From TrEMBL:
One Pfam family here: APH
Protein's name according to its UniProt entry: Aminoglycoside phosphotransferase domain-containing protein
Lineage: Eukaryota, Fungi, Dikarya, Ascomycota, Pezizomycotina
Signal peptide: none
Compositionally biased tracts (Basic and acidic residues): 23-42
UniProt domain Aminoglycoside phosphotransferase: residue ranges: 92-329
Region (Disordered): 22-42
């Protein structure tokens, strides 16, 4: 175990449960909610929970706290993780984050990289992330709990409101509109500052962050804990690749091409129901779009800590709309352009001034920054990257997730100016 540094996705009905934010549930991962409703899968996850030695987490937490009494609080089962409250006698609450073995791609690697990112940011930044008190991989010889876990701080605050007109607020006071607009701008300014600060922490390659026993941080081979389709098949395909394709990657070109190889490997070596000519054609067509997505001057860096899941549930605020927590980092270093996109809450079918894309874009481009170490201090760089953000986000969504068949046709047409014809054979074609 590596001692002392936290976070969360839960199903929609659990968002305001005992835990502040148990597990991030993307709009584009809603299929997981459908999957988790199946009786067999419910049975599997309940069986996994039943065999967990949760009292051992209390013992570990009590030892870290110097012997203070600890008991189990509520728990939430999210798309990727189980979040268990650990309640101390003095009222303090910690969260234990336990990856689900059925849905999480490489749960050990995801645990180690997530803990490393939180500990790095807590040590080197002013971004409000949870403290990690302890963490361990399932394979660690000293792990008495028996499976991977992180013990972390439960941050104050609540989910970010969007001021949707359909919210539960029954006030008809017209004076609320300017107040809401002001609060939305305050949120946009804070998010911009956070993204600018993330861009000040530069790394030599794209991959997963790790911390060694001496507290040094390095980038190792890639792991994407947010991949949601057939995680076991994805893991098998990933480990069958030549090490070069597993990272870390020294350029965006290398990163995109390696993930393209992974996608094709997963599609062509999986169980018998795979080997779809249509999917193979789609992946090949997507790979050919990569050179049109890459901005040459950023191909070789800088590489920074990314967060591709900034939903309203992963941004905690107080009643004055001060951001009190940013949670659920994937744990990866990414190309600067991958950081410089619209946060996921702008793609999440929400409404209200907080998710008004044009208002955020204006703030993101124009906000002054004194952070001279940030690759995004320049407003011209921010403008350049945000102008191409939607296309880049769509490309990476198709490349890194299971949504290619939904994303590719529109993406292909927007880039090439002609329709993509899904033939089901060959490399894909245009009309």
């Amino acid at each position: 175990m590596i001692g002392q540094g936290a976070v969360t996705p839960s199903a929609a009905g659990e968002r305001y449960a005992l835990l502040q934010r148990a597990d991030s549930q993307h709009h584009h991962t809603s299929s997981e909610e459908k999957m988790s409703s199946h009786d067999s899968e419910d049975s599997d996850i309940h069986a996994f929970i039943d065999q967990l030695k949760l009292e051992e987490l209390c013992r570990i937490a009590s030892d870290i706290e110097g012997g203070g009494s600890c008991s189990l609080g509520g728990h939430t089962v999210g798309g990727f993780n189980i979040i268990q409250e650990l309640v101390f006698q003095d009222g303090k609450v910690w969260l234990a984050r336990i990856p689900r073995p059925d849905n999480c791609f490489e749960p050990e690697e995801a645990t180690l990289s997530y803990a490393a990112v939180l500990r790095y940011l807590k040590k080197h930044s002013s971004i409000p992330v949870p403290s990690v008190y302890d963490y361990a991989a399932a394979s660690d010889s000293g792990n008495t709990f028996g499976t991977s876990y992180i013990l972390m701080e439960k941050l104050p605050g609540h989910d970010l409101p969007t001021f949707d007109d359909d919210s539960d607020d029954d006030s008809d006071d017209d004076d609320l509109a300017p107040v809401q607009l002001s609060a939305a701008r305050k949120i946009h300014e804070q998010l911009t500052d956070i993204i600018i600060e993330l861009a000040s922490h530069r790394f030599e390659s794209i991959g997963s962050l790790r911390e060694d026993p001496e507290g040094n941080f390095t980038v190792v081979q890639y792991c994407d804990p947010t991949y949601t389709s057939q995680p076991e098949e994805r893991t098998t395909a990933f480990h069958s690749l030549d090490p070069h394709y597993r990272g870390p990657y020294r350029s965006i070109t290398d990163f995109y091409s390696s993930i393209s190889v992974l996608n094709l490997t997963q599609e062509t070596t999986g169980p018998g129901h795979k080997h779809s000519p249509q999917m193979i054609a789609d992946y090949k067509a997507l790979a050919r779009l990569a050179p049109k997505i890459i901005i040459p001057e950023f191909d070789n860096g800088p590489f920074v800590i990314g967060h591709n899941d900034l939903t309203v549930q992963n941004i905690l605020v107080d009643d004055e709309f001060n951001i009190t927590g940013i949670i659920d980092f994937p744990g990866n270093t990414v190309p600067l352009p991958s950081l410089c996109v619209f946060p996921w809450m702008f793609h999440d079918n929400l409404s209200g001034p907080v998710v008004a894309r044009d208002a955020y874009k204006e703030v993101f481009i124009s906000k002054h920054s004194d952070n001279g170490s940030s690759a995004l201090q320049s407003t011209s760089v921010r403008r350049q990257l945000i102008e191409s953000a939607i296309t880049r986000n769509q490309f990476e969504l198709a490349l890194l997730g299971p949504m290619i068949s939904l994303v590719l046709p529109d993406l292909y047409e927007s880039i090439n100016g002609e329709k993509y014809v899904q033939q089901g054979t060959g490399d894909g074609a245009t009309a």
